[in-house]
C-alpha cells in the first residue's frame, strides 16, 4: 500500500487569535504523524505554515478587527503535501501575494528590515503558491515537496 492511501485528506480549523498559529501547527503536525516526516520535512511544514498563518492573524484579522475562522486543508499525494488555507479576513493588497524577494542584509544593523522575510521563505520553500480572493474569503494554496511517495 502506498503512502498516498495511508493519509486521507484532513482539515484543521482554528479561530484567529494570538494562540491560533500554535494551535493550528500542533493540529497539523499531529495529523501528519502517520507520514513519519523527518526533522527537516516537519521543520519545513512548520516554518512555511507558521509564516502563512502569522500573516493571516496579523494582516487579515488585524488587532481591532473581529476574530474569524482559519481553515487548513491538507492532502498528501505523490508530489508531496498540498495545503489550502482559507480565511475570511481582509484581502491581500492589490489582490496578490507580496513578491517575496530576499531582503538586502548587507546593510548597517540600524537599517536591517524588521519584517518581510515571511513571503520570501514561503515562496522559497513551497511550490505552486497561489492566492485568490473569492469574496468574502482568501484562498492560499501551496505544495510542499515532503513525504513524496
Structural features, described:
With 149 residues, the protein is of the alpha+beta class. It has one domain (3-144): Histidine kinase-like ATPase, C-terminal domain (Heat Shock Protein 90), CATH 3.30.565. It has helices at residues 3-6, 20-32, 39-60, 118-125; strands at residues 10-15, 69-77, 80-87, 127-134, 137-144. Helix 2 (20-32) runs antiparallel to helix 3 (39-60) and helix 3 (39-60) packs across helix 4 (118-125). It is globular and about 40 Å long. Mean pLDDT is 87; it is low at 1-5 and 111-115.
Described by the principal axes of the CA atoms, the overall outline is globular
- Supply the CATH superfamily name: Histidine kinase-like ATPase, C-terminal domain
Termini gap: 11 Å
- What is the domain total for the residues? 1
- Into which percentage range does the β-strand content fall? 25-35%
Helix percentage range:
25-40%
How many DSSP helices? 4
What's the CATH C level?
Alpha Beta
Helix-strand sequence: HEHHEEHEE
